[in-house]
Design goal:
Number of helices: 5
Low-confidence stretches: 28-33, 60-86
EC number: 3.4.22.71
Mean pLDDT: 82
CATH superfamily of one domain: Sortase
Structural class: alpha+beta
Pfam family, one: Sortase
Strand content: 15-25%
Keywords: Hydrolase
Order of helices and strands: HEEHHEEEEHEEHEE
CATH topology of one domain: Sortase, Chain: A
Number of strands: 10
Radius of gyration: 24 Å
GO molecular function: hydrolase activity
CATH class of one domain: Mainly Beta
Protein name: Class B sortase
């Protein structure tokens, strides 16, 4: 009799432990979902505000300075320009439409946009490729991170391969729109990328889109010769899901957009574009 009671008590203890464990797992999962949803909401508000600042008419030098809402003090464009001077070569002119943005964050180096998609974001750059994976454009922790440029690229210089990274968010924000280039229709009809920087504007046309993994070095930035760069260009064009009539040579400069993919473990979805004024 005592043995039977002990067995029942043990069974009850096991069931209780399983229920407690299940409840903890459920609560943790709900917490993670809640954090993800809240960060998504905060992220949306952040970028709505910064788009307003970017797309409004810039103040010309000599005009009345704007007021900084955070401090209620006027801060002229010249201050914003000088604070970003470390990133701007002396022989290049500051792009006035970034004046308000560099006041918010001196890490802002550009803006990327693809018409008829949700890709319409500021581009930041840190001293590594880790910080902006989990921090927004205001340098605040956020699971959506930011769209950021590879730390090895140099704004103001002719980079052969400029690389931008962003998350594939479930709410279709950040670089989730890149996955749509699995569709040939999107590849052909949404092929133009605007990537402007703090020193000038440029347009780029997509010539390759594909899924790969981190074993393929598509984020290579340095090439020992034109021949080496041409091999790289031929390789990424051959990997494309869709054929393109765009001709790319070692005399061109390219833009690479990269995001994670759920296609398989360690998968990446990559889009390459060539600068339009380079195309012959």
């Amino acid at each position: 009799m005592r043995i039977g009671i002990k067995i029942r008590m043990n069974e009850r203890s096991v069931r209780t432990s399983l229920l407690v464990t299940g409840a903890v797992v459920l609560l943790f999962s709900l917490y993670k979902i809640g954090v993800y949803a809240w960060d998504g909401y905060e992220n949306k508000k952040t970028y709505e505000g910064i788009r307003d600042a970017y797309y409004e008419e810039p103040i010309v030098q000599g005009a009345a300075p704007k007021t900084n809402p955070a401090t209620d003090q006027a801060k002229p464009i010249s201050v914003a320009v000088s604070s970003a001077a470390a990133k701007i070569p002396a022989n290049l002119e500051f792009n006035a439409k970034f004046a308000d943005l560099v006041k918010l964050n001196e890490d802002i180096v550009g803006w990327v946009k693809i018409d008829e998609t949700r890709i319409d974001y500021p581009v930041v750059q840190a001293e590594d490729n880790d910080f902006y994976l989990s921090n927004d454009v205001n340098r605040k922790s956020n699971v959506a991170g930011s769209i950021f440029m590879d730390y090895r690229n140099k704004v103001g210089e002719a980079n052969r391969n400029t690389i931008l990274y962003g998350h594939d968010m479930k709410n279709k924000t950040m670089f989730a729109g890149l996955i749509d280039y699995e569709s040939r229709w999107n590849f052909e009809n949404k092929a133009l990328i605007e990537f402007d920087t703090i020193y000038g504007d440029a347009k780029w046309v997509i010539f390759s889109a594909y899924t790969t993994d981190s074993s393929f070095d598509y984020i290579k930035t340095e090439f020992g010769s034109d021949e080496e760069f041409q091999v790289f260009l031929d390789t990424v064009q051959a990997k494309s899901l869709h054929a393109s009539d765009v001709k790319v040579t070692a005399k061109d400069t390219i833009l690479t957009l990269s995001t994670c993919s759920s296609a398989y473990e360690d998968a990446r979805f990559v889009v390459h574009a060539v600068r339009l004024d380079d195309v012959r």
